[in-house]
Specification:
With 388 residues, the protein is of the alpha+beta class. Helices cover 48% and strands 15% of the residues. Helix 11 packs antiparallel against helix 12.
């Protein structure tokens, strides 16, 4: 017997529900038959970006005047919810939508030349971009980055290294955070570095616990020269450009979190209906029903909180602290629900052939990436007035 899958559409308009359904149907055609192989390959094919663009799903939430498909953050939320509900892996989502962190700074602050050279080709599926902030020795401390860019005539000369950079192996450029001024947040700029620039290399492709379909690299910059026109916006304003985009990144990670959790819930509810032990379905046991109900509750709470923060952000409110807490709520839900999903699947949940095993590995990154939970909790404490 098939268990009715749980889905949530409240909070979305009719058009957004239709967009979500389009994402689900796209997944059935273009993702489900190939995802296992992409996970084994450690990356997704470049032509997948073109398929997303052709379907009108690559630039949702990005203004049409720079090559996007239009819409706002809630439209992007509806689309991503559809993808995750249909079974996308964390690595696929991160890799296919790396432009969600690679180009917003250029869209908001970059020159027409940078937008035409990098943003439009990314949104048409012809280029892949990535964002280079994290360094081997700095982690979440954006203000402490050491990669240095020194101006020499009409060029920037860049030296340093970046770590854990998503889509950098197959990417065509990296929007790179560099120190162009003094110490701290006031001395950072964003500079676009194209692949193939002498001195710029992927020193190694990194092997990870999860997010297997996402290529992740360590980058080296050795006397890398790029035109001064590759500077995004104003010199030494990079930290503020980065901070401006953190809210949407954390909402995206929260969506990823409750999306994984909802998929795990639906897979597990069906498994508990089908799996018989001691002469009866697992679902006949009160403790199993209680766990499934708690999984449902946590997903519903995380989704409601996340979408409320997204709507407040669209309305122009300052929601930096709330985005931190929404991310924590959703990723904690993801970690707990995925763990319960594996437990209820029993031995099968520990097998690579089980989808919940993949989600279990993928969600473990979420309390770390995009700002570790401990860092974001302290940030929220200060913003909410709980710190001295």
């Amino acid at each position: 017997m098939t268990v009715q899958a749980t889905t949530f559409n409240h909070g979305f308009s009719e058009e957004q529900i239709a967009l979500k359904q389009s994402a689900i149907e796209f997944t059935k055609r273009e993702v489900t038959p190939h995802l296992d192989q992409w996970e084994k390959d450690g990356e997704i094919p470049r032509e997948f970006q073109k398929k997303l663009a052709h379907a009108g799903l690559l630039g949702v939430g990005v203004p049409e005047e720079v090559g996007g498909d239009g819409g706002d953050l809630m439209d992007a939320c509806a689309m991503q919810e559809g993808f995750m509900e249909a079974g996308w892996s964390g690595g696929l989502m991160a890799s296919a939508y790396t432009h969600g962190i690679a180009i917003p700074h250029i869209v908001a602050n970059g020159s027409k030349e940078l937008i035409d050279t990098y943003v439009r080709p990314v949104l048409s599926g012809d280029m892949i971009g990535s964002l280079g902030i994290t360094e081997p020795g700095t982690g979440s401390d954006v203000a402490g980055i050491t990669t240095k860019a020194v101006r020499d005539g009409d060029e920037w000369v860049i030296n340093g290294a970046k770590m854990f950079i998503t889509s950098s192996v197959r990417g065509d450029f990296v929007t790179t955070a560099c120190r162009t001024g003094g110490e701290g947040a006031h001395g950072i700029s964003l500079i676009v570095v194209p692949k193939g620039t002498p001195g710029f290399s992927v020193s190694r492709k990194l092997d990870k616990m999860g997010w297997l379909a996402s290529d992740t690299g360590e980058l080296t910059y050795e006397d890398v020269r790029v035109p001064v026109t590759n500077l995004v916006g104003q010199e030494n304003h990079g930290f503020y450009y980065i901070a401006d985009q953190f809210v949407t990144e954390r909402i995206w990670l929260a969506l990823l979190g409750y999306g994984h959790a909802l998929r795990c819930l639906n897979l597990t509810a069906q498994y508990c209906r089908d799996r018989e032990t001691f002469g009866k379905p697992l679902l006949a046991n009160q403790v199993v029903r209680a766990k499934l109900t708690e999984m449902h509750r946590q997903v519903a709470v995380a989704r409601t909180y996340t979408l409320e923060v997204a709507q407040r952000y669209i309305a122009g409110e300052q929601v930096i602290a709330e985005a931190c807490l929404a991310k924590q709520t959703a990723v904690d839900t993801a970690v707990w629900v995925a763990d319960q999903a594996v437990q209820l699947h029993g031995g099968m949940g520990y097998m690579r052939e089980s989808e919940v095993e993949r989600h279990y590995r993928d969600v473990r990154l979420l309390p770390i990436g995009g700002g570790a939970t401990e860092v974001l909790t302290d940030l929220a404490a200060r913003l909410l007035g709980y710190a001295k």
